[in-house]
Design a protein that fits this description.
The protein has 373 residues and is mainly α. 59% of the residues lie in helices and 2% in strands. It has 17 helices and three strands. Strand 1 (24-26) and strand 2 (31-33) form a beta hairpin. It is globular.
């Protein structure tokens, strides 16, 4: 094999097994979180139960869940000086940049920042899970020029996230839709951001540093930012009659259609139809938003018929969150509010059985030459 062939064969590490994990199995036929299938979880679990499953390692009993939820509620508050910084930077920053900074600042108030012990890592994971919605909410309120909303201890995690962003307690349907979306986004094996977290953790750096790296990776439009880009694309299409000319132009100019395709799933993303169905339920309460699903369905049909490419979960996410009234730039921070569970689970797994992640590369540059030759 020539160097060029070797490089092409492993471009983007496609097809390369970079390690093993007990946390998640991404396959063509199913998506499992510690052995539980994603449709089963979306139908029967809550996000707090899934968070416990991923972080603690097993399905919680009723008493364990009660204690876990109570602990998260007690950890939602963020120091005033951090909120003040978030309030000042948020109006002129992308929310992912604000969140990245907020998580980094949280490291300065964590007494066990330097310890990677299982006990301290689990405690840090819980604090991050509880505090991230507070930072997201404070950032959005600052963008809107409105007073910061304190966490509501009476609300579950997903409902509190929506409340802190909007100042309004969500309906049962809106809260459950957010709950399901967080379940769907919670974990996905060695994706780009998770692999970034594990690579950083593999150097024996701390959890907060690894999570900040994960946020940076997730921000990219080819990863977490795809849900924002997908909705922006649909807004650009604007109307059902514009779908065909838009798609023809996109194909002619080789424009990437955001929210479609997946490195692993070749026959469709298991999560996408689940979230689409919940998004459509929302349109019963907000029928004026049904048009976005009609436009999305038309785009999806063309992609399937002509390119044989399925949508991934980011495509219905854009429409669903838009129907909920969530500002598009907050889609990826909400992704973080969910994926923090998977990231922290992988960071803990990496720390518990660590080996420095240091792949080789195939050199394809010039042969040896003399500087003074």
């Amino acid at each position: 094999m020539t160097p060029a062939q070797a490089t092409a064969a492993s471009s983007g590490l496609e097809g390369i097994e970079a390690g093993s994990t007990t946390i998640c199995n991404v396959g063509q036929g199913q998506l499992l979180y510690r052995g539980y299938e994603i449709h089963d979880l979306a139908d029967n679990a809550t996000f707090e139960q899934v968070a416990h499953l991923l972080l603690v390692g097993h399905k919680p009993s009723a008493d364990e869940l009660k204690r876990f939820k109570s602990e998260l509620v007690s950890l939602r508050s963020v120091p005033d000086w951090i909120i003040d910084i978030v309030r000042r930077i948020a109006p002129n920053s992308h929310p992912m940049d604000t969140l990245r900074t907020g998580v980094s600042l949280l490291s300065h108030v964590d007494a066990h920042i330097a310890s990677n012990s299982p006990e301290h890592n689990l405690a840090k994971a819980k604090r991050l899970l509880a505090a991230i919605p507070t930072i997201i909410g404070a950032g959005q309120r600052a963008i809107d020029g409105k007073p910061i909303v304190a966490p509501d201890p009476a609300l579950d995690h997903p409902a509190n996230l929506l409340y802190m962003m909007t100042g309004n307690r969500p309906s049962e349907l809106f809260a459950r839709t957010m709950d399901v979306s967080l379940i769907l986004y919670a974990e996905h094996e060695f994706n780009a951001s998770t692999f970034t977290c594990r690579t950083i953790a593999g150097t024996l750096s701390d959890m907060h540093s690894a999570v900040v790296g994960g946020i940076g990776a997730l921000k990219g439009p080819l990863h977490g930012g795809a849900n924002e880009a997908a909705m922006d694309m649909l807004k650009e299409v604007g109307a059902l009659d514009n779908v065909r000319p838009f798609m023809d132009n996109a194909f002619a100019t080789k424009r990437k259609i955001m929210g479609f395709g997946h490195r692993v799933y070749k026959n469709g993303d298991h999560r996408a139809p689940i979230l689409r169905s919940w998004g459509l339920k929302l349109t019963k309460e907000r029928p004026e938003f049904k048009k976005w699903f009609d436009i999305g369905d038309a785009v999806q049909k063309i992609m399937l018929d002509e390119k044989h490419i399925h949508p991934n979960v980011d495509f219905p996410c854009g429409m669903t969150y838009f129907t909920m009234g969530i500002p598009v730039p907050q889609y990826t921070p909400i992704f973080v509010a969910s994926r923090i569970t998977g990231w922290c689970a992988h960071i803990m797994e990496q720390h518990e059985n660590n080996r420095l992640i240091r792949p080789l590369s195939t050199y394809v540059g010039p042969e040896r030459r003399e500087w003074n030759g």
